[in-house]
Amino acid sequence: MGQSNTVRILDGNTFVVCEDTGDIEATPSEPTGLFSLDTRFLSTWVLTVNGERLNSLSFDDLQYFESRFFLVPGMATHYVDAKLSIIRERAVGGSFREQLTILNHDEKPVDLEIRMDAASDFADLFQVKDEILNKKGEIYAEVEADRLRLGYRRGNFRRETIISSSMTARYDSKGFAYTVRLEPNEQWKTAIDVKTHAIGPGGRDLRMGLRIHGNERLALQHDLEQWIADAPKVNSEHGRVSATYRRSLIDLAALRFSPLSLGGATLPAAGLPWFMTMFGRDSILTCLQTLPFTPQLSKTTLRILASLQGTRFDDFRDEDPGRILHEMRYGETAAFEEQPHTPYYGSVDATPLFVVLLDEYERWTGDADLVRELERESRAALGWIDSYADLVGNGYIWYERRNTETGLENQCWKDSWDSISYSDGTLPPFPRATCEVQGYAYDAKIRAARLAREFWGDPEFADQLEREAAELKERFNRDWWVADRGYYALALDPEGRQCDVLSSNIGHLLWSGIVERERAEQVAQHLVGPRLFSGWGVRTLAEGEARYNPIGYHNGTIWPFDNSFIAWGLRRYGFAEEAATIANGMLDAATYFDGRLPEAFGGYPRELTKFPVEYPTACSPQAWSTGTPLLLLRTMLGLEPHEGHLAVEPRLPVGMGRIEVLDIPGRWGRVDAFARGRLDLDNLAD
């Protein structure tokens, strides 16, 4: 589904995707409608006046949670000085509320029949994504005097949409209507409430229903203003930087999701429309990107992931003791175990990354209490790395799904079916071990050694972890290095054969620190070389590889989040110019997306397309793409916590101008950072 002809508003797990008129006419395969808790609560929401559909003059995305549509009767081709105008104002927050205003510009009274067709297919988001709407329960509509109740029941699983209006309406099973007479220059208004209810076992309502009223909308506005006020301020001579930063902050606010067990605390949901829920990997990486700016997200994320850590062996959910979840879902297919996401544990990177985030969070915030609180969960995660993850017995993290029906084949971040291949394009057998996950394991052990020594009172465990990390680094650099090409293999197969393609994953190895110093320059040059670097960013798979496709999901597209960690890795090894090159390309690309970087975009060479080519089904906004500009700011300014203070070592791209980041929070209180880019001498006037 293209994004240019749809309007999206969201508040955490609840979102609305509609046409530019405000209408919703969903098909089984399109993510249009009102969604909450992975269920579509409205699939039809169509306004007519005197039987006519309406034409959009304009629409405004006022905030992430509200929009306004300006409409006239009839289609655009028939427009001649309309005598009526219609305004639809909409806000979402748990459920949604729409205010309808109709104005008569005629010199005569006018009689109007105003109708809203309303329906719900109660589709599970997985059913929409898979284009299979196979409902096994009963859909019903109950007409009451003052409301319309749409519902779905399947055993104990119930979902309901309850529609009511501030003005008297006539309800029927397919919607509601008003008969209105408007005098000259008169206007008519009504507020329409749409409440969603998710009924669980025992009749418990999992969703408290509508929380958008006039004062609640103001509360959301105040919350957004406070969110922005609490974050550091970014000023820049180059307007794209500060504008992109502000867009990212607002999108992060929109993506904040409060799981049912958290009582209001929030963590970042992964992305709209398909991933508006908790993801271990995505939430952790987003928190790592945003730590200098919104550290509160990290604390919540660590706590909720720790509370849901694996405790048993469950083949259906790919669960092991100590394993950090991959994904949690609340819809029908999860409730009836048609999908394993309650939660599902099929990722191999979330577990070491959990330990990485805990250490990084403490380094920034000084929150030793949380490190002590999560000691047991951290030790369990480290235990998983060394035991249950080593399926081959050679000291690496491997994956092979045990749920062969609905589990993920590839359990690394490149989780599409064909993302891991040999250089001839063939796919390796399972189990598989991807390179970046070994880097994460190395980093987790190094960081956990610090935590054990400084906070857990266990210097012997710290020494053991450091020995294991050193052995892993030596072994990895022997087994994964493709000597004749000067880079690390994407993966190993169970026989130890290298998947010897050139991929963006090698940048994550720099970030983790597992790369031998003498090899780092070769890796860095590959990352900014013409096969991987398009001019906008680093491709997931290098041009010239058998499976390379500039619009292949993980086989040639550019992922902004991927590039942000690559830039961080380049800075870690001292390649500041190369990191600045990537940051510059990403920030340039962001201007073509109005400051909102999508999940992925095409890997075409910059000189060929002149602008970044959209990937057709990319999520937007998406959490780790939203976090990308924030991590790039960190890498450009060289912000690193060091011995209880904030170290600043800026290296901006040529021509960037001055950047200020003010009130950076941390264990040091709040401090400012300043940097100025070098002049672009080639473009200076004589």
TrEMBL record:
<dbReference type="InterPro" id="IPR032856">
    <property type="entry name" value="GDE_N_bis"/>
</dbReference>
<feature type="domain" description="Mannosylglycerate hydrolase MGH1-like glycoside hydrolase">
    <location>
        <begin position="335"/>
        <end position="592"/>
    </location>
</feature>
<feature type="domain" description="Putative glycogen debranching enzyme N-terminal">
    <location>
        <begin position="10"/>
        <end position="192"/>
    </location>
</feature>
<dbReference type="Pfam" id="PF22422">
    <property type="entry name" value="MGH1-like_GH"/>
</dbReference>
<dbReference type="GO" id="GO:0005975">
    <property type="term" value="P:carbohydrate metabolic process"/>
</dbReference>
<dbReference type="InterPro" id="IPR008928">
    <property type="entry name" value="6-hairpin_glycosidase_sf"/>
</dbReference>
<dbReference type="InterPro" id="IPR012341">
    <property type="entry name" value="6hp_glycosidase-like_sf"/>
</dbReference>
<dbReference type="InterPro" id="IPR054491">
    <property type="entry name" value="MGH1-like_GH"/>
</dbReference>
<protein>
    <submittedName>
        <fullName>Glycogen debranching N-terminal domain-containing protein</fullName>
    </submittedName>
</protein>
<dbReference type="Pfam" id="PF14742">
    <property type="entry name" value="GDE_N_bis"/>
</dbReference>
